[in-house]
Amino acid sequence: MKKISVIVIDDSALVRKLLTEILNSDPELEVVATAGDPYQARDKIKQFNPDVLTLDVEMPKMDGVTFLRNLMRLRPMPVVMVSTLTEKGAQITLEAMALGAFDFVEKPKLDLSQTLSSYSEEIISKIKAAAGVQPQQLTTKAMLEVEERLTADAVIAKSTKNIPLKTTEKIVAIGASTGGTEAIKTVLCALPANAPGIVITQHIPASFSAPFAERVNKMSALNVSQAIDGEQILPGHAYIAPGDKHLLVERSGARYYCRLNDGPAVSRHKPSVDVLFRSIAQNVGANAIGVMLTGMGDDGARGMLEMRENGASNMVQDEKSSVVWGMPGAAYKLGAAELMLPLDKIAQEIMKQGR
Fold first, then answer.
1. What span, in angstroms and rounded, lies between the C-alpha atoms of 316 and 318?
2. Cα–Cα dist 215/225, whole Å
3. CheB-type methylesterase domain location, by residue (predicted)?
């Protein structure tokens, strides 16, 4: 079986070394070359014709976004951005995603060696997904010991209490991961200012969630913001989970509120879509509209099924328009959604269900 060939582009020799070691540790991947700047990268790409690139955001001679813009115009190929956890890094990475980058991984400034190694599973999975290969299920004893896969029970117990009666006010709950930042932007920008209140869990680092919300807010007719604990969910507003907290929805009387939770990762994610969707199932019931967008893995599938069992109307993004049809595919195969739609039809269906 031919290995997935990768070129690592980063101005830091240490990062190039660490990423090379991480990727070469997987039998399906091979780093065929590294480059310290975009000009070296250009020559290496011509020489090795790789399947995937990892690309640093901030580099000498030419920044990563400028290089990516040129690359996508002249020779489109899968690119995974490697970005520092800073506000500037977040803004640039979001711009890169808009230009066609497949996904991104974190490059913290401190404890680089230890922290990058802890993200090895995520990095390997994203490279494989970028190459069009289904990420292999990691079943090594070491991985299982490092990270136990918890369910939503770790944050919110499954309730048997009465489900809220159906009312005229709707709440839309959206879950997404890989490719989700652009998919969420597409949906929110297609919704009118009188759309129902929307809560969103996107797998995203903590320093990226606020800049992401600000960026979409400038483009959308909705008021888009990072969710704040205790704030009321209002029509015409969208609330995005912070990148390091679970977002839940609570009901008090006829009103709905955002609740943030600092509990453990669920399905290896924090925020977790399963946590949001379970809270919606229990506190919103038939007043909810569930939407699952592009994403790797199956986080949210079980929560969406609970939503449907409690009367919610659910839809998933179709495979053709998804960057990765993991999360929407898992939900659909589980019977958690009635509808499967292309991305450009989802906003219209939200408004139809909302009426």
1. 6
2. 9
3. 165-355
Please identify every residue annotated as catalytic.
177, 203, 299
Distance CA(213)–CA(207), nearest Å, equals 11
In angstroms, the Cα distances linking 235 to 20, 214, 224, 240, 286 are 48, 18, 11, 14, 17
If you write DSSP's letter for every residue of 108-157 in order, what string do you get?
-SSSHHHHHHHTHHHHHHHHHHHTTPPPPP---HHHHHH-----GGGTSP
Q: How far apart are CA 250 and CA 256, in angstroms?
A: 6
State yes or no: pLDDT of 196 exceeds 60. yes
Place of tokens 């991480």: 22
The closest alpha carbon to 235, from 187, 193, 288, belongs to 193
Task: Identify the three-state secondary structure at position 197.
Answer: strand
291-343 pLDDT, tens digit per residue, is 999 988 889 999 999 999 999 999 999 999 998 888 999 999 999 999 999 99
**How far is CA 272 from each of CA 149, 240, 245, rounded to the nearest angstrom?**
12, 12, 9
For the stretch 94-109, pLDDT in tens is 888 878 888 888 776 6
